[in-house]
User: Fold WD domain, G-beta repeat from Thalassoglobus polymorphus.
Amino acid sequence: MAGRILFLMLLFFTLLQHGLSAQDKKENQKGTAAAESSPFDPVATGLRAAPIPSTAIRTAAINKNGSLIAFGTGEGKISIWDTKQNKFTHEWSGHDHWVFDLVFDANSERLFSAGGDNKTKIWSSEDWKLLKTFEDHTDDVHSVALTPDETLLITGGDDTNVIVRNLKTGEVTFLKGHTAQVTSTVLSLDGKQAFSASRDQTIRVWDLENLKEIAVFKGHQEDVLHLAIDKSGQHIASASYDGTARLWDVQSLKQIASFEIPKTWVTAVEFSNDSKLLFTGSTDFMVRAFDIQSKKEIWKIATSSDVSDLLSLSDANSLLATSSSHGIYFYEYTNDRAITKQVAIPAYAEWGHASPISTLDYLEMHEALLFEQSSKSWGQKIGLLALYGDAFSRTLIADLKTNELPAPKQELAKRLKDKLSILPQEALGTELIGKYWGRLAVAEFSELRVTETLRDWVTGETRKWSPNPNNFEKELLSVELKVRKELAVLSKSDAEKKRAKEIESAIVMEFRKLADEKNEAK
Assistant:
């Protein structure tokens, strides 16, 4: 019976090798379209280990008089909300990829945007046309801030740099110190200091007059994702993957409080206009309010997905929250509760769902995982393993030398490893064995470099299933000659008209019969 199993496996490969038409081969050689066709952003989904749509709203900024709110999305769009008209009035494609941060100048004449295309852009608020583009960073730009006198533009990015650009002289200064991606920057009210958060678990304080580091805030146990400064200018708040929001004193440069939210990531922080409340947004879909003096949670309210940003509005007790499901929530609050006043959804937002991917897309994700780690698009190619990864993916990523990857890729690999480690450890079932041998056949046919690794893995898994594992290699050799003799016949038959799915189904049926025989023998 073991010989029959092996014969079916090799027969499957032979059928598929000679069954794919020229058109099939041509389409296969185009490469995977899974990332391009998916409604989810691959990198964000990989980092979050949950579906994050490309239309997710990442950031929000309000102008000084509160009349305009700008939003940035995962697909690079910028939208403008007019608070008087209570509606979206403008929308355009601002960046090739994510808009990570936005800020208005003091006179609301310009809007600055930081993007996933490594660019910082300036837009005219008169007609929203592009005024200028800076390409100071070599990777995603995650934060942008402007000094009150509008002289210095401070940005932070995945290249671990905080960059200070003098808008009058054009001089650019790189402030180095972080060892991982810079995720957020805020400025002191007088514009003399900058605070930067990073995935290296620190917050660094920079003297903008002398352009040097003056302090490092340590305390967070995981990536620091977001910063906010209160209206008094006395406190900085930080949000982290470690499930805490922390409060730091600007004068003493020390931590003065920690607000814990167990079993979730804190992704956003904001202060109330009177600086008495601290708001947090998190991956449990909740917005919470903490009384800063008592350090107690006083209310919480749900959104529909991960909270990506928080913004205190010009109305005394109004708060805005953006979410990864592209919803914008307007809240009114008191000291003991909050109510949802309005939910706004941009016209371009689409509610997507994870669709099945092709065998070739699956294989090319794993090919990229192993052999394309130096590629700039590595994250785009492997991020969807958070949705489509399986036991084979888990094995590969467990053996990946994560520490040798650049900082942004380390973070993605770490999150995927955590996600895939929770998959069941039991041996493969009948249907899965047939499916993996089908994938191996496609890998062989497409001449992918992942073929050898997949062959070793699927052979080992099949050996666990085989009723006669000790004779596995011996029977493999004996069957190979028989398959070769049938090759000429198969290549001339109608096997060339068959498709991988049809052959896979037939093999699975045979495996079911063998499983029944094995159970009856017991």
Summary: The radius of gyration is 27 Å. Residues 5-32, 472-500 have pLDDT under 50 and may be disordered. The first helix runs from residue 2 to 19. Residues 2-49+354-521 form one domain.
